[in-house]
Amino acid sequence: AIRVRELTEAELMAVEHFEANAGPAELPNPWFRPWVWWTAAGVLVAALGAGVAVLLLRRLREMRIEPARPPWETAYDRLRELDAAKYPEQGEYETFYVELSGIVREYIEDQFSIHAPEQTTPEFLSEAARSGALTDAHQRRLARFLKHSDRVKFAQYEPSIDEMERSFVLVLRFIDETIPVLEEGASPEDEAA
């Protein structure tokens, strides 16, 4: 049973304020959901990353990786440059000895892992003696050269061209004598490593 009654005055006024039926609601478009966009962005970033990785791997295969140069080769190159500069003939004593002592100190640091460039001569000679990397004869020659070099650099001693040439030969001989001897069947790369 349905019971029907008439609307009261207040109910009639309320009905007048009702809005018309909006009709059926539309379903939301699945492409406008945030998770769809985040997923698409993630796939795109992953694809780009994979592409970059493939390009880098191809590039690395194409590149030839050069092994590090042995310290003595670098020292020989620097000695050639120093000789070509002709500092003794120009009277550039201090520049010559700064360069020459720098070459030998950097060679020793690279070859024997003895921190040499920033140390004073006594500090360096003490560390070289403690390390055991250099023979007594090499330590004596090195000490003689470095003390002579310090006299030129710090005490305004003016060496003769003959003294400068002897210093150059002493450094060259020191490098020659401290190059590691390759064992039979070993390659230079094995020895440098």
Content-based structural category: mainly alpha
Helix content: 55-70%
Radius of gyration: 41 Å
**DSSP strand content:** under 5%
General description of the model:
The protein is rod-shaped. With 193 residues, it is mainly alpha-helical. It has helices at residues 9-16, 34-62, 71-85, 87-90, 93-112, 121-131, 136-154, 161-178, 188-192. The model has no long low-confidence stretch (mean pLDDT 83). It contains nine helices and no strands.
Fold blueprint:
Layout lengths: L8 H8 L17 H29 L8 H15 L1 H4 L2 H20 L8 H11 L4 H19 L6 H18 L9 H5 L1
Which labels suit this protein?
single chain; 193 residues; mainly alpha; 9 helices
Quick take:
With 193 residues, the chain is mainly α. The protein has helices spanning 9-16, 34-62, 71-85, 87-90, 93-112, 121-131, 136-154, 161-178, 188-192.
